[in-house]
Amino acid sequence: DILKNVNWQKDNLSRMRDLVEQQLSSIRKTMQGSEESWVRDPSAAYIFQQEPLQLATNSFLTKAYNIFRLKWMLKDAGNKTTSDAVNQFLGYLENADANRSELNKLLTVMVAENTMNADSSGANKTYAAAFNNLPAGAKVIVKDAALDLQQMLNDIPDNSLEMDWKNLCRTIQKDLAQTPEKTLADLNDIRSILLNNENARFFLIGSETTANNLQGSINNLLKGFSSSPSGKQKYASKNLIDENVQQRMRTSEKPVFVGLINGDSPTGVFMNEASLVSYKNTTENDLLKFLAAELYAGGGKQSVYTKTTGAGLSYSTGVGASPSSGTFGYYAERTPLLPQTLQFVIDEIKRSPFDNSMLDYTISLAVGGFRSADDYESRGIAMANDLSDNLTPEMVKNFRQAILKLRKKPGVLNEIYKNKDAVYEKVLPGYGIKSKGVPGATYFVIGPEKQMAAYEAYLKSVEGNDTKLYRLYPRDFWMMKE
Predict the structure, then answer these.
(1) Would you tell me how many other CB atoms lie within 10 Å of the CB of residue 464?
(2) Which residues pair with 469 in a beta bridge?
(3) What is the pLDDT of residues 189-218, one digit of tens each?
(4) Rounded Cα distance, 210 and 221, in Å
(5) DSSP class of residue 153?
(6) From residue 317, how far is each of 138, 313, 324, 338 by CA, in Å?
(7) How many angstroms separate the CA atoms of 178 and 73, rounded?
């Protein structure tokens, strides 16, 4: 009913605007929450930065910018006198002195409850004076713009401040010029694309009797959906976040090590990932690598989790291989100092002795039924997702049976340990090979500048003095190019 009978009409704009404002306010607070609730999101966005739809629908940093734009696309610019005054002022405002301190002074004047002396805005006093002279209706709209600009400045580093300030002023100006009626029409066009049988995926969890009883209702549900070819959307193959960074840093170098600045927390976060083994890979060599990745996974006495948390060097941490995605990753959050924790993990793994009891441990992690304790519905949803991703039960069964077969081979644990270094050096910079040479790997950290500086110094010591840790800011996740 929601998809078929939405109330996206002009007379309901006030409610829609309220909803957009609420969403924007909520999403801007994301990074103020506990780290474990949000840190995986930016890392995933970076990994999937070639997928704009993934960014637009899943990355809170990208969505914040898009919702900000939608807000201005839905806003009423007022009568011609008001809209002309706002348009002229925003075009003028983009040329303000793009010094952070000076811009904050100007915005303080613009968002004040009562009119403030323009002289208090420093070098931008002519812009403050122009704001004070705006007609009342235009001043209300521009004040709202100033509140957004004040918020957005927190997401922008100094080395792109001038460029981003101009972009934001022009974006507000452009989006406000698009009438709410045009925006509603665009939203309805997108909604109609969704109402297509080719874009729908349906699964049912229940008994055969229940399924038969529901068949009529299911058919009725889909009656309003189009059966015409939907047409696959085509997107340019580009690394959106890397391109934003390269433009800001004026470089063509592709980042290898990246770190999202989070000034609200003193600790650091690791999220490193590299390709390893998927369910399709069942050769003995692949399986040995997969089992080697499990040696220090889980919560055993020798695991990265137990050792690191026991030493007080991380609140939550671990390594793990995912055959569904074909990746191997290292994660650690709330580390006192990034290089200290990383070096500790490397040392622990390198000096860990051969342990005869580890075979069954690694096998249990490799073939364990992680869904077995879930409720029936959750398991059904996971199965439906697997089938949609062409991950069939036969594929999983073949993979696990190959592991169980390998378990019986004499001396297999020795072979597993021989693969240890080749596996762990992929996700732990400084362990062995240069991380720059690991194809498709992602080395992503989060923390304040103090953590970044310490980690970059460590990387230079193990990767080479020319190694650079590229700082990321929320603006690097924005879709600024149309």
Answers:
(1) 10
(2) 257
(3) 988 888 888 888 888 888 999 999 999 998
(4) 16
(5) G
(6) 52, 9, 21, 12
(7) 6
